[in-house]
């Protein structure tokens, strides 16, 4: 009888261990999938911002590209809501509303307004990714990774805010006040990028970003240095991509430490 009871207890313990293991695996998988969807939405939002900005500033025809991007944004945001936990659905619906707002009537917006709306949606997306990642780190009892991630995250956000200010100042770069603002944000952004180089050296050392940093220095130090608006906007797009690569590398490193590596982004 004692042997039977011992066996039943052992089987019960093994069953509980298996149950909790499956529960943990399910939680990890859910957070992993949320990050993948949010990461894709972030990339698509950046692509939409670039396409609409070129259309507004330079009159480029981007109808087919924008239609494709908007279809993907709808599809991915719907999938995000459908697969998220019940308690999390409202905040993902708010993100979807912001994405719909930036897609509607963008032709009637000023360049600065278009930048601001896209910037808000992109930052909202990043804050949701940050929330998922921090919860993941807390549940995994990885305070060491959590502290490092938080410091790096703050540098990424600061760099993005500075880049947004630089983008906005491009529209008035030929006025005296606008030129002064532009030079100020060129210097500030260059210093932010140097800080990001400590997090992900390869992202900041890319040829496009290295060239951008050189031009940022020229613009700050030489008031007579002239550059077309179109070229300057392309520079900010190159910098934006580099900052996105830094954050993506952060996510990939943490995801690999906690679970499995993130997949490659699906290019639109």
TrEMBL record:
Q: Which residues cross the membrane?
A: 6-21
Q: Which UniProt keywords apply?
A: Membrane, Transmembrane, Transmembrane helix
Q: Can you say what this protein is called?
A: Nitrate/nitrite sensing protein domain-containing protein
From what organism does this protein derive?
Vibrio diazotrophicus
């Amino acid at each position: 009888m004692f042997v039977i009871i011992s066996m039943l207890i052992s089987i019960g313990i093994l069953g509980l261990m298996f149950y909790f293991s499956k529960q943990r695996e399910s939680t990890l998988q859910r957070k992993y999938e949320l990050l993948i969807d949010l990461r894709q939405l972030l990339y698509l939002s950046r692509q939409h911002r670039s396409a609409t900005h070129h259309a507004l500033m330079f009159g480029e025809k981007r109808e087919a590209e924008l239609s494709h991007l908007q279809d993907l944004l709808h599809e991915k945001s719907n999938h995000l809501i459908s697969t998220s936990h019940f308690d999390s659905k409202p905040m993902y619906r708010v993100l979807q509303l912001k994405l719909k707002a930036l897609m509607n009537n963008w032709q009637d917006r000023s360049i600065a307004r278009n930048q601001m709306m896209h910037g808000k949606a992109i930052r909202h997306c990043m804050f949701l990714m940050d929330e998922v990642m921090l919860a993941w780190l807390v549940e995994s009892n990885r305070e060491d990774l959590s502290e490092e991630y938080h410091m790096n995250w703050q540098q990424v956000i600061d760099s993005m805010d500075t880049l947004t200010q630089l983008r906005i100042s491009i529209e008035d770069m030929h006025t005296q006040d606008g030129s002064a603002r532009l030079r100020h944000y060129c210097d500030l952004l260059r210093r932010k990028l140097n800080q990001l180089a400590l997090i992900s050296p390869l992202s900041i050392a890319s040829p496009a970003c290295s060239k951008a940093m050189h031009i940022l220095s020229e613009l700050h130090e030489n008031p007579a240095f002239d550059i077309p608006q179109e070229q300057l906007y392309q520079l900010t797009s190159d910098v934006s991509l580099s900052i996105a690569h830094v954050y993506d590398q952060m996510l990939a490193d943490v995801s690999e430490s906690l679970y499995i590596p993130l997949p490659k982004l699906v290019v639109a």
